[in-house]
Amino acid sequence: MKMIGMVWIVVAMSSTGCSRQSTEEGEERSLPNVVLVTLDTTRADRLGSYGREDARTDTLDALAAAGERFTRAYSPMPLTIPSHSTIFTGLEPYTHGVRSNSDQILEERFNTMAEIFKAHGYATGASVAAFVTQASWGFGQGFEEYRDELPRKPVGDGKNPWTEERPGNLVIDDALGVLAGFPEDS
Predict the structure, then answer these.
(1) d(CA 5, CA 20)
(2) What is the pLDDT of residue 98?
(3) Which residues of 32-67 are buried (b: 16+ CB within 10 A; e: fewer)?
(4) How many other C-beta atoms can be found within 10 angstroms of the C-beta atom of residue 25?
(5) How many CB atoms lie within 10 A of CB 81?
(6) 107-148 tens-digit pLDDT
(7) What pLDDT does 5 receive?
């Protein structure tokens, strides 16, 4: 069995494996592994890779040093669901139609990054930490695995579902578990 590639989009943190793809000419070429890490409400000046000397973000700093780190990235709006809809589609909120954290869901008709990667031979998976990044908002499109189970709070206890989340270490453990289930190169 030949591994074709992997994209692991973790909306909190993640990991990937190695990959190969056959070209039209029949030769194999290596595909780069892709990891997308999004951190909600995080300021760049609080991360070591952006210059904070006393930051305790060693793992993120190592990922930034080994991959691509952008110094100029802008959110299309200061809300998680519309921003992630833009990240996943490359479209502005006025085009994909998700403009608030409410009842708007990224529609199936929009082609997502995971769908594009999957169409080009990648295995795709995600592990998320927050209510606002669950598949129910349309974010599961194109993923073979989308781990988004959050602890449910009892109804009527006055708790706000928008605050449901799970710790980063559980997100990483979950992501690594699913990653281990993807086939190896042969």
Answers:
(1) 6
(2) 97
(3) ebbbbbbbeeeeeeebbbbeeeeeebeebbebbeee
(4) 6
(5) 24
(6) 999 999 999 988 888 888 899 988 889 999 999 999 989 998
(7) 42
pTM of the model: 0.80
- The yes-or-no verdict on residue 11 having pLDDT over 50 is no
Average pLDDT over residues 96-102: 94
The DSSP annotation for 81-107 comes to: HHHHHHHHHS--HHHH---SSSS----
Rounded distance between C-alpha atoms, residue 85 and residue 175, angstroms: 21
- Please give the mean pLDDT across all residues of the chain: 80
Among residues 108, 124, 99, the alpha carbon closest in space to that of 10 is found at 124
1 pLDDT higher than 50 = no
CA distance 104 to 100: 7
C-beta of residue 147 within 8 angstroms of C-beta of residue 135: no
What pLDDT does 70 receive?
84
What are the distances in angstroms from CA 181 to CA 25, 68, 70, 151? 30, 26, 31, 23
Contact yes or no for 27/37 (Cβ under 8 A): no
Residue holding tokens 């073979």? 144
Q: What is the DSSP pairing of strand 28-30 with strand 20-22?
A: antiparallel
For residue 133, give the nearest of 47, 45, 16, 13 by alpha carbon: 13
Largest CA distance in the chain: 61
